[in-house]
Design a protein that fits this description.
The complex is a heterodimer of chains A (130) and B (97). With 130 residues, chain A is α/β, with parallel strands linked by helices. Chain A is 35% helix and 19% strand. In chain A, strands 4-3-2-1-5 form a 5-stranded parallel beta sheet, with helices on both faces. Classes of the chains: A alpha/beta (130), B alpha/beta (97).
Chain lengths: 130, 97
């Protein structure tokens, strides 16, 4: 089946992003296709490449970036959610005259329309971290 | 058109489970995940589901992480692969936060 996920929760504050990661791995292992993973509201923090986790804690940010790269997933960060939380790519940093870039290059920054598109083109959609 | 209702909040902190129970229709299923599995050993949950044609599941890794045992045989345990299967078996999923 074609499945898309939307993740509302930040790593470290809710379990939702961890549950979504486990679900995503299981879906891929069962040969389902992940059409899109959409990071929304506080979920955009999962795409922050500047997060540094203590050595004895699980680095969820790195785990998501690795999964996205390994499976070439379409991972999209909501632009409105990302900008207000300081999750910026080079293009947005330049547009708003900010000096830093924080989003991992494995993730794209785009609009909520990408989630609408995912809903229209997926057999199943699942929300995590609500 | 069946729905998988996903409950991720503790029944002791929010009314997510109660709102879910008010919405479920015959043929739907409930999946308890994260802190939602704390409802799995409530006898009141089994009472609420009696005679409603609603299957109830709990995510095994979240049960183990919280040392919660399932109180009633009407609640089934599933792993991550089972979670994926449940999503595929139901036309819609609804996450109750």
């Amino acid at each position: 089946m074609i499945i898309s996920l939307v993740i509302h929760g930040a790593p470290g504050t809710t379990q939702g992003a961890q549950t979504a990661l486990t679900f995503c791995r299981a879906a891929l292992a069962a040969d389902h296709r992940i059409y899109r993973v959409f990071f929304y509201e506080d979920g955009v923090h999962n795409a922050n490449a500047l997060s540094v986790w203590p050595q004895d804690e699980y680095d969820l940010n790195a785990a998501w970036a690795t999964l996205v790269r390994e499976h070439e997933l379409d991972a999209v960060v909501c632009v409105a959610s990302a900008l207000r939380r300081g999750v910026l790519n080079a293009e947005e940093a330049s547009r708003y005259e900010k000096t830093g870039v924080s989003v991992d290059p494995a993730f794209d920054i785009s609009g909520l329309g990408q989630w609408v598109d995912a809903c229209l083109n997926s057999d199943r959609v699942v929300s995590f971290g609500v | 058109m069946s729905t998988l209702h996903i409950v991720n909040k503790s029944p002791f902190r929010t009314d997510a489970l109660q709102r879910c129970l008010a919405l479920v229709s015959p043929g739907d299923s409930i999946l308890l995940i994260e802190d939602g599995v704390l409802a799995a050993n409530l006898s009141t949950l089994a009472d609420s589901l009696a005679g409603r044609d609603v299957n109830c599941y709990a995510l095994s890794e979240d049960l183990v992480a919280r040392s919660v045992s399932v109180a009633d045989t009407c609640i089934w345990t599933v792993d991550a692969a089972g979670f994926v299967t449940l999503v595929c078996e139901h036309r819609n999923s609804l996450s109750h936060g």
